[in-house]
Structure formats: C-alpha cells, structure tokens
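Homework-ish question, so no full write-ups if that breaks the rules, but can someone show me the predicted structure for this set?
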Amino acid sequence: MPGMATDPELLDAWRAGDASAGEALFKRYYGLVSRFFANKVSTDPADLIQDTFMGCLRGRERLRDDAAFRKYVFGVAYNLLREHYRARHADKFDPQTSSCADLLPGPGTMMAKGDEQGLLLAALRRIPLPLQVVLELFYWEDMTSATIAEILDEPHGTIRTRLRRARELLGKAIAGLDAEPGVVHRTATDLDGWAAQVRAAAAG
Amino acid sequence: MGSDGDTHGGKASPHDPFEAQRLRAEVHARLFGSADVPTIGAWRVIARIGKGATGTVYRAVASDGREVAIKVVLGAGTSGQARLRREARALRELDHPNIVDIVDVGEFEHGVWVAMELVVGETVRAMMARPATWTAWIERLCPIGDALGAVHRAGLVHRDVKPDNIVVGEGGVAKLVDFGLAKAEPGSAAALVSQLGEPLTRTGASVGTPGYASPEQMLGKPVDGRTDAFALAVTMWEAIFGVLPFRGATADAIGLAAIGGRVSMPPADRAPRELVHALRRGLAAEPDARYTDVDAFVGILRQTLP
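A: Not a homework solution, just the prediction itself:
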C-alpha cells in the first residue's frame, strides 16, 4: 500500500522494480524538487527534475526514515544543479560567488511594483548560489540550519554564518532592486517575517 | 496538482499554473511512461519552446499529427483578453505568404492562446551574424514590408517588428511572427515570447523593444502602421550596416536618440546614397515626416535595387 509506506520503503520497492512505488514517491516529492529548481535555471527544468528522481532510483544508499530521504533528495538535486551550472557556464561559474542573476539571462529583473513575490525571487537570484540555496531551503522548506547543514554536508556553524550573510545580502539586493520604501523598511527590520508572508501568499 | 497524497505539493510556478501542470506531466511521462498529456483546445502539448513573464510558447500536436506553436498569454486582464482574441481572429483572416499562419485561437482558465504555424528556420537576428550584401537584405526584407501593409489594411499594428521576429524558413521566404499580442498595461511589466523561444523582456507602458520602438510608441502616444514601418527601417539598417541607427549606452539613451531623431552615420560605401536617404526618412522622429505608409516605403526601397 504505497499510501501508508514510508519514503525509504517506497524507494526500496521502486529500486526493486515496483513502478507504482516510484509514482507514489513522485507524488510526494515532485513539488519540493520542482520548487528547488524553479528559481535557479532559465531553461526548461524537466531534465533536472527527472535526473533527481533517477538519481534517487539508481543510488545505493540505504535510508533510515522520511527525514533522511528528504535530505537525500535535496543532496541529489543540489549536486545536479551545480553540475548544470558548471556545464553551462564553465568559463564563469565559481560556485562560491556566482549568482543566478550573473549566469542566467532572462526576466530576473522584471517585476511589477507591488509584486512582492517577484521581488523576493529576483533578489534571491542576485545573491551567490550557496547563499540563495540556504535561504530558499530556510524559507520555502522550513528547514533548520542543522538540517540544511546535513543536506549540504557542511558544518553547522558554516551554515549559520552563511544564513546570516545571506540575509544581509538579500536585504541589500531588495533595496538595490528599487523596491517600494515600505517593503525596503519591512525587509530591513523583519526579513524572515516578510519572506514568510510572501511565501504564504504565493502558496495561496 | 495538489491531490490528497501530495504531501509536498504547492505551486512550483505561481505565475503560470498551466506550465507547472505541463512540466509535472512531462516529467511523470519520462519517468513512468504515461501521463495525462495536458491539452490546450484540441492540441496536445508536447514541449515548451520558450518562456517569458506573461506567457509561454509550446510545441503542440493535433490528433492528425499536425504540429503548431501555441502561444499562451497570461494575465492580460478581461479587456486585454478580449483585445487579444479580436486581434488573433483578424490575423487569422489574413492569408499572406510572409505572415505566420494563425491556425487556431481560444481561451482557457489560464488565459488566451494562439496556435500558429510552426516555422522551422532562422531568425533575421541569427542571419545577421553572416555577411550579406545590401541588395540581398532589401530583397529579403521588402516582403516583410508587404506583409505589414496587409496587416495595416486589416486595421492592425504589429508593434514589435525586429530581427528576432522575422524568420526565414524553407525556400528563403521571410515570415513575420509573434504579433504584439501582449500589450502591457501602464506601469506593469510585460514580456513577449518570440515564436522561436527567446524570452524578450521589457518593462514600461509601451510594447516594443528598445532600439526598434518608434518615438511615438515609447512616449505612449497612439500608434499606427508607421510605427511598424519605423521598426522595419531600424531592422534593415541594422542588417545592412551591422549597427543600430540609434546609439546609446543604455536602453534609455538609445530611446532618447530615436526621439531626438539622432541617426548615427552609416559606414561609408556600404550602401548607395539613395538607400541611406530612404532609410533615414523611414527613421524620422515625427511620423508625418516618414513615408505615408509602409507600402510607399518599400516601394522606394525597391527602386534603389540595381
């Protein structure tokens, strides 16, 4: 019964050839994986999403529980994203400093005044990729810095520093995007609260 | 989307629910072999060709195997949607060899869609990377002027003529694609997607692309066919001389040069004086100082050919 099974059970069944178990995992994790790539690639993300699921299928890792599986999915997706950038921007990709706005052509700067979600997404694309990733996991997936550290395989202290630095740069990016003064003020005083509101509004 | 067991569901792309649904179906089909292929009207969507902020272009197929490019325009508002439908239907009536065929028009919960002939070819933008004589360019692009003449006689204005929106397909026939179906509301951002999939973005109240937009378009004044003739003159100038007629470091500076009528000097000996003169008149800041209509403009251009 795929509906009752844990994520690791479904993964094992899928690896053993049970496609319906794979479909059940797909149903559970598609939203999370597609959100992860949505604000980071300018091309059709279908390949990356597909490869993330295929990566999980082909991997040999044994996972304890649903939380471990979730981390595993993110780990696979994050590695694929880095490979994607490396392949497409071999000349200018430095994973520590490159931001999506540097690497991607397209509508990154485009938004209507008052479109706070567009503003948040555009600002996120302007900060270096590792900082963007930690903030998005923090805001979108409600992960703690400890969980993010595990997924990205970095020391907890490093991630906490990165989150702090990411918030600083995000605040600056929002101000630099010529946002309305009220938004600039709110993001300067309560960035996390603002981001949570924007996220909730976007999720309907 | 968002069924009961979807524990991590949510909107992957809140701006474009149809695209989110299509992407999910595509990945599902690749992984598990089957899925409900999303449809637009009677068309089954098989792939995304390009994406912009207000719309997306898909490759789609009918039950008889015929393929089209479908442009989906989102968020045009009720009056905007009515206008888009009206314009697409009027375009459909036009049967011109140099205008992309409109095959089907409709609307669905997400917006308005227009199914067009899928033109396989190269944009004039891509062709400009290779050297060609001025006569070759005039011969190639004058039919686009004829096409615009037909558009204008039908009471329409393209609003976004530029090298990216002219595709040269099989047999060397140039076709005008991507009519300005998404007109921005004042103060909002808008984007058009060319049929070939390059996202072409712009902001502001006027549709048109900096460098190609006429002064009256940039200033938000009423536009008529002379705006398209102006943009065609810019396109021809760029194709022949390799540079835009109006120069500037920023889009605003280029726009100001156009509004001020400051045409840069073309490289000497690249084209005859009569042609330069005709193009300059086509680029006049005041519509009244240009040719009466696009037919008169291309008529003069053809006279310069040896």
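Now go work out the reasoning yourself. Hint: Chain B has nine helices and eleven strands.
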